[in-house]
Amino acid sequence: MSEVITIGEPMIMFVADAAGDLKNVQHFTRYIAGAEVNVSVGVTRLGHQVSLISEVGNDPFGAYIRQFLEREGIETEAVAISGDHPTGFQLKSKTEVDDPEVVYFRKGSAASRLNAESIERFDFSGAKLLHLTGIFPALSAETFDATLKLIEKARENHLLITFDPNLRPTLWSDEATMVKRINQLAGRCDVVLPGFREGKRLTGRTTREAIADFYLSNGAKTVIIKLGSTGAYCKRQQPDGQVAETLVPSFRVDHVVDTVGAGDGFAVGVITGLLEALPDKKILERANAIGAIQVQHISDNEALPSREQLAAFIEKTAHQTPENQANDGLQAI
């Protein structure tokens, strides 16, 4: 296995070529989507090896996804091909004002059939970090069990586990189930990465400090909260029992094109920063920078930077100030 392992559903994404309601769109441009795919692309571009566990259909969409992953240098040995279930896809509207409209066609997809038995065959030797999101376990009862099994195997092999709630309410049967399951998973992971609005929804707490305390008291060692235009906040339980807090401002963004994928870019910064043992301040700075880069492009992953591009962005781009934070179009994702 590579040094980073993740599991998720790669999908074909058709993005509207013109703004407006999806029902009125006549032409789309094809991309690749999926939170875990986005993270895999970003981590690989920053020089780390990634293995993606997934399944695609034996169809043109599945073939294109495997080609894309291989071209990006992502290990595909754990991407199975199903002859019985199709590859999922989605439609996304074009907008520069609010979050885009996204419609999924993934029910009964190949990836949603992965189960705990699917995980047993993987050897985690050599891996250092497992990254999970709340999307894959929401696809089916089988994928939730597969996620639990993956956490179990990661613990057996002493991997660091990062978890981004990445809420998708439409995938869950109801709000209460979503909150219960997501918090159950978060409590079994080392680093939890909620957005501020997600954290309020999941914990009932209303401040970043209280949200962080909720997850620290439930098993997490570090909580990093995405604060949108304000930046990012980290609260870490140190080995000596002391708690360290870090707040880093975001980077200025003059023109927001698409906010989808910003959280995945943020996770890329955290994961690579952890692998490189960077101090918390530098981890948050990197995560903020990649998130800021992402919102300036329509694709969920095409703009994810190389190490050189990331360094250039950080060097030339100013941090947010209180005067322009409220007017940049970004929300606390």
TrEMBL record:
CDD domains: KdgK. Residues 1-306 form the Carbohydrate kinase PfkB domain. Pfam families: PfkB (PF00294). It comes from the Bacteria. InterPro entries: Carboh/pur_kinase_PfkB_CS, PfkB_Carbo_kinase, PfkB_dom, Ribokinase-like. Belongs to the carbohydrate kinase PfkB family. GO terms for molecular function: ATP binding; kinase activity. This is 2-dehydro-3-deoxygluconokinase. Keywords: ATP-binding, Kinase, Nucleotide-binding, Transferase.
